[in-house]
Amino acid sequence: MMRNFLKVLFILWSLFSCTVSLFSQTYQAFQAEKKYLIERTRWQIGPFRLFPRIMLKNIGYDDNVYYQREEYRVKDYTGTISPEIRVSVLFRNILILNFKENPEYVYYVHEERERRWNNSLSPEIKLLLFRRFVLGGSYSYQNRRRRATSEFDVRANEKRSVYKGSLFYETPRLTLLGVTVSSERITYEDVTLPGREIYLSRLLNRDEKKIKGEFYYRVFSRSFFFLVFQRSRYDFLHPQSFWRNSHSYSLSTGIRFPEMGKIRGTISFGYKELLPRDKTRRGAKGLIGNTTIQWRFWRLILKTELTRDYPFSLWTNNLYFVYTHLGVGCSFYLSRTLRLDYNLSYGHLNYPEPFVWHGSEILRKDKQLYHIGGFVVRLKQNLGIGLQVVWWQWTSNLPGVDRDRLFFGGYITQEF
Question: Which residue has the higher pLDDT, 253 or 192?
Answer without folding.
Answer: 253
